[in-house]
Amino acid sequence: MTSLQEKNILNNQVFDKADWSSAYQNVEVELENQSLKISKGNIIPELNGTLFRNGPGILERDGQWLHHPFDGDGMITAIKFKNGKASFTNKFVKTEGFLKEQNVNKFIYRGVFGTQKKGGVINNAFNLKLKNIANTHVIKLGDELLALWEAAGPHSLDPNNLETNGLTTLKGVLKKNEAFSAHPKVDFNSNSADEVLITFGVQTGPTSTIRLMEFSNSGKNSGQILFDRKYKLKGFAFLHDFAITTNWAIFLQNAIDFNPLPFVMGQKGAAQCLKSNPKKTAKFFIVPRDSGLFRGQPPIIIDAPEGFVFHHVNAYENDSNIILDSIFYDDFPSVGPDEDFRNIDFDNYPAGKLKRSLIDLKGKSSKLVSISNQTCEFAVTNPNFLGIKSNYSWMACTERKTGNAPLQAIKKINLETKEELFWSAAPKGFVSEPIMVPKEGSKYEDEGYLLILIWNGSRRGSDLIILNSSNLEELATYELPINIPHGLHGSWANEKLI
Ligand code: CO
């Protein structure tokens, strides 16, 4: 990466908030198999498969805006590549709540992140029924495409046309609408013979229960459960994500409290009732995998560093240590009841920073070191290196090196040398989570493609940009036929899986 260091200088341009917030608009159409023309660059004939993305597609109904985009109904985008041709499909997840609200064109459910029904406190108090909005992630498991939202069950979709089949129990594994995390990991490095998908569901309360599940995700048993075990942990647990190594599943229990009263009384959304508790200590809750060497042993609980984590990047084992990279915030980021999410003050909003936890399983201690001080989110690793030592990570980051701002650039970082490389969409463009697709048969960890949905503030539209993941050179741009609001997570499925 040395010859590319000169690119490592970012412009100090300031973004226009109106360009950023213009992405927040309702998706009005559903398209199926619409062919895409390349607008810039060259087609990539060896890229065969489908990019799936999820994110909020409804931000407003009948003049009422959501309080937070995370409360928006899930809309799935699929961009399929076959022999150099690209086609586009998008559909809403037809959840029960979406269909009901679509019918009357108003919000009739409260949102976890603060969206209230019209009519004030009196119309919201004691109304605790939440809508499964299926808006966080989309991933294949067996022959089902799953639209995920962590507080309730997965919706099953047809991977080809994105039509919703309905809530799935995953062949009887889950109770109907049982909580199922939005951050499953596809693991190519476990001790199981097949590729596996490992994930969890959490039932929270004074004592919380984590259900850890491993499914086969290839071959004739694809979609079948392999391992299933429940663990109890003390206290309230807000667990959005986790990390894996070959032998362990690692959870970080943030030091936060949940005071449900303002939610029950109709004043706040449930997530607005989460608050950091400086008197509490965060904990690592490290669970032996049933496919690993320590099967059946009790979980290991170790004090964790201060800070709030939504997302982990990767973890690996080094003797009796676990090395875990995560994005840390000083505090839980929440949009207050009187704030407008389209006009938040980035300077006063907690910023994500990439940090490394060194966890000593024998000594039962942990230490936190900084990897980069630049604001970032949505960091990924080469999927073939999940759970084992990886040298590189790619992420969405701010244009500037310091301070908080919208995510406008893509960064590749060498986690050992800290060497960085950037591609930027600033000043008018805004990035989302990069999806890393390794080049088939490649020996190099960083060889492949990055697929990124961009909000193009110049033309007020969405683009798909494909970068070379090794040097971040721009390979191809496709202008998309619909406008896609800033989204959440996605995945890549190889052609052979579809
Ligand atoms: Co997430």
What do you see in this structure?
Mean pLDDT is 92; it is low at 1-11. It contains 4 helices and 35 strands. It has a single domain, classed as 7 Propeller (Methylamine Dehydrogenase, Chain H). The chain has helices spanning 17-21, 96-104, 120-124, 261-264; strands at residues 31-36, 38-41, 49-56, 60-61, 64-65, 74-82, 85-92, 137-141, 144-148, 155-157, 164-167, 185-187, 196-203, 207-216, 225-234, 243-244, 248-253, 256-258, 274-276, 283-288, 300-303, 308-318, 321-329, 353-360, 365-372, 376-380, 392-398, 407-414, 420-424, 429-430, 435-438, 448-456, 461-468, 474-479, 490-494. With 498 residues, the chain is mostly beta strands. Strand 8 and strand 9 (144-148) form a beta hairpin. The longest helix is centred in the first third of the chain and has 9 residues, at 96-104. It starts with 16 loop residues before the first helix and ends with a strand. Strands 2, 30, 31, 32, 33 and 34 form a 6-stranded antiparallel beta sheet that branches. It has a 5-stranded antiparallel beta sheet with strand order 1-7-6-3-35, with no helix packed on it. The protein has a 4-stranded antiparallel beta sheet with strand order 8-9-10-11, with no helix packed on it. The chain binds cobalt (II) ion (CO). Residues 182-183, 240-241, 310-311, 489 line the site of cobalt (II) ion. Cobalt (II) ion (CO) binds at residues 182-183, 240-241, 310-311, 489.
